[in-house]
Design a protein that fits this description.
Layout (H helix, E strand, L loop, with lengths): L12 E5 L2 E5 L3 E9 L5 E4 L3 E4 H10 L4 E8 L2 E15 L4 E6 L2 E2 H7 L4 E8 H5 L5 E3 L6
Antiparallel strand pairs: 1-2, 3-4, 3-10, 4-5, 5-11, 6-7, 6-10, 7-8, 8-9
């Protein structure tokens, strides 16, 4: 967190890192029950929204500035909190790839929290440019 410049005017947060200063306009909090679907995607389900966290991460990693601020909370406990360059890294032992920020494995944390109600806070320039990415409104009957 020492890289963060405490300047939060006009909903913009400035981050200083080795790539220069990036302006992340919004950090969005999604809440719901985390599921892992048959396609291998992590989805947060609430009564009104379905948020495909995997879609957000896939789009972010392909963006030219993929610095990301991400925090995973269950109640008051923080399970993951990192800001930095989002990468997808291959695990040589198991032959699977997963998302990492600053060398810390995000997908390992998410996998162990499947079935729990979480708050996931995500901020990235890719999300600023693609508002609503991975978010689907549910009808009243869907859950």
């Amino acid at each position: 967190m020492s890289n963060q410049i405490n300047n939060q005017t006009n909903n913009k947060i400035n981050y200083k890192n080795n790539l220069g200063t990036l302006k992340i306009r919004n950090i969005i909090t999604y809440s719901g029950k985390l599921i892992y679907n048959d396609s291998g995607d992590y989805i947060l389900l609430s009564p009104t929204l379905s948020v495909n966290i995997s879609t957000i991460l896939k789009k972010t990693i392909c963006w030219h500035h993929n610095d990301t601020n991400l925090r995973v909370l269950k109640g008051c406990k923080i399970y993951y909190q990192e800001e930095g360059h989002l990468i997808k890294k291959l695990d040589d032992k198991y032959g699977i790839s997963s998302y990492h920020i600053n060398g810390l494995d995000l997908e390992n944390v998410l996998f162990h929290l499947v079935g729990d109600y979480l708050d996931i806070e995500i901020g990235s320039i890719a999300m600023d440019e693609n508002v609503g990415l991975g978010v689907e409104k549910l009808d009243d009957g869907e859950k």
